Amino acid sequence: MPETPEQFYARVLAQADEQGRLPIPEQAMWEIFPFEPGSLIVKPLEAPVLPEPPRAGEGGLPCWRCANPDDGVVWANERWVLTGFAEALGLPFAALLMPRAHLDLGDLDDTMAAELGVIAVRVTRAVEALDGIGRVHVNKWGDGGAHLHVFLLGRPAGLVQLRGSCLTLWEEMLPRTPPHLTDETLQVAVDALADLGAPATG
Ligand SMILES: [Zn+2]
């Protein structure tokens, strides 16, 4: 079983320096890490916050997606929507897959869980088949919002330094991809879901 938050924090803090800073991680030595290791200062580790602050869409806080259910939708069926991003990103492909209902990942019944898998696999397969895409990554964090939002992120082909878990750090440093290019790539994802729902008409 996991330690209590206090036990975890006390054990970890005992390994930190007098300012509460942990050692530079091994990841900083990886070739995919975007910063020079010698340039880094680790932030002091903060104590647990319990209970955790509510995310958007819980604890009385509004849910933006439930208030704007059709915003940015490029494909939908009765239970799911696929959207692009309101602001251009630095990647050649980026989409969000979300349930229409206000559900988190652990709230999905087996039917919706299976649908999530089918949709994510369909989009991944279609977009990864494009010459300009190295790989599509599927990510779920959900620490900011309670309404499930699964990130589908395409890495530009050949940019091997952008592989793996540091992709989102690199993304913010890349110049924005021209919207007409990301729109075309998003359409490939929509086409891959054609028999599971419908493209958004608005
Ligand atoms: Zn919601």
The tally of helices reads 5
Instruction: Give the averaged pLDDT, no decimals.
Output: 96
Which ligands, by name, code or SMILES, are bound? zinc ion
Q: How many β strands by DSSP?
A: 6
Main sheet specs:
6 strands, antiparallel
Low-confidence stretches: none
User: What form results from the Cα inertia axes?
Assistant: globular
Cα end-to-end separation:
49 Å
Instruction: Supply the CATH architecture of the largest domain.
Output: 2-Layer Sandwich
- Major sheet strand order: 4-5-3-2-1-6
The H-level CATH homologous superfamily of the largest domain, spelled out, is HIT-like
Radius of gyration: 20 Å
The computed structural class is alpha+beta
Oligomer: single chain
CATH domain class of the largest domain: Alpha Beta
What is the CATH topology descriptor of the largest domain? HIT family, subunit A
Number of domains: 2
SSE topology string = HHEEEHEEHHE
